[in-house]
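ESCALATION

Customer reports they have been waiting on this structure for their group meeting. Please prioritize. Original submission:
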Amino acid sequence: MRCCVSSLVLLALLCSAAAPASATPVTLRFRGTADLAPFGASTTSRVVGDVTWDPAMPCNGNGDDYSVCRFDPEAYDGDPVPVGHLSIDGVDYSARIAPYSRLEVFPYDLFLEFWFTPPHGPGALNVGRVYLWMWSSRSEAAGTPVFYGGWLPADLAFLSRLERRALVLSGPWNETDPYLPSVSATTLFVPEPGVSALLVAGMVAAVRRRGARRR
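Update from on-call: job pushed to the front of the queue and completed.
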């Protein structure tokens, strides 16, 4: 009986270690500029997006060293899936994000891919795909994974370790020509928790200095 109890305790410890420590949703935001003239927009178009995931999503931690989470609730019996938003030059394209869009993590990189349904209405951009790829060549060379066990992260602390980043926009999928015309963002900013806190602290300090001078 004592052996059985010990085995159950060990099993519970292993399960708790494998599961993420927090199930609080995590939101990753990004923004950049790109020459979208080929798609009928400005040469300095502003792209703003985000993705939110729950570390306890059933698509997460599949037993391998990676996870692939689709945006389709039907694929997971209605359980939580990633949720994304994207706007270009202030126009919201979130409603066009297709359910086969995906969020993936591998030991050394995170990959977010938005696929879009055909544009509707006059003036809609003919963008079919947007992906954000962040990876670490340094960590891979050192053999120190950024993500373990295929688990999506429970916070944004990983951002400081992914030194390589790219935001790419492509035209609509064409089966006769799989090579989509693509444009890479000329600027890309992914706010990190520490950077955001530093900026806020700097703003507060500046306001205090100005207040002191006025006195």
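Sent to customer with the following note: Residues 73 and 81 are 6 Å apart (CA to CA).
Escalation resolved.
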